[in-house]
């Protein structure tokens, strides 16, 4: 009897794997195309809703997220899907549906309602902390009103610390290091730059950008009180087309370095403008390692652009290199080269939690996610139960030309990559939390 059951499970896994290769979670969809990767008629997919900017000034970042999550779900589906007991539907594939928030909170909230109506019980978002905060509030209210349709919110990029502190929620899990953790990692490098005496702080004018500059001032005062802050300003998010006036102010301030949490076009246009006005200082960034920034900076960024991330392509070790090469094979266009290990780990953690719970029930899966440990590409991470903040190593890299020691891989076909200069273990990146969570 057990032999027959084993054979059926193997055949089912093979069928799901072939379905994945033939299109289940396969080809890339456009904004508002709906479900990506239709499941076979013999299985009921587990619906995941991606709520993200898929049009407008930050559409490129939304599409980059989609590619990462699509690849992650393809990997799960290729090995047979999420292994659930027969009562929960048996082995089931993951299926992503796309919802375009258009970079607006109200649109994101409408998308959340549509996703829930469409049967999604897991929502994913990250490219705006303001949007994430709105979604946390909406998910909290929905789950109280309609306990039979509770949903989980998986956050891969919204890094305002408040989201796992004052606004922490049982239904929300953050898989990225928050802004204070990232700033502490950058300070590991900045602290050693003894020639640095002045910095310019610039950021996007919303909760995340404000949090970055606030923490920069705090950590500079504590660790480099000798460094003067010669500029400190915020600019509108996604609305500045010409950063030349900002770049001129940065240059005229005499700042030897810029500290910024800017992302997407707000970063690319800023560094491009700085290069064009002849600014020769360094950039300490959260996201300067991709999305067009290295190509925009060019040779001027060699040895001067510093970025922090959960992982970079030039992290040493064969597992990491194999992981990156596999992504490039799946998405061979250079402009698609923006891979996030944390997003892969997020989907792995979700699948593992569902299997551990033996269901897709939000409460059961949330309890499994608390404290879960996952590994991929030679890196490991775990979810802290106290505040649902992922604990993982962080790396800091410095821009250099591909082919120089430590830079076997470039970024987006630019000819520039990032040499890892700090690999900070999870135990060192961890920070205290003020979360007081209501549990279920």
UniProtKB/TrEMBL annotation:
Transmembrane segments: none annotated. The keyword Hydrolase does not apply. Residues 45-403 form the Leucine-binding protein domain. Keywords: Signal. Gene3D superfamilies: 3.40.50.2300. Belongs to the leucine-binding protein family. This is Branched-chain amino acid ABC transporter substrate-binding protein. The lineage of its organism: Bacteria, Pseudomonadati, Pseudomonadota, Betaproteobacteria, Burkholderiales.
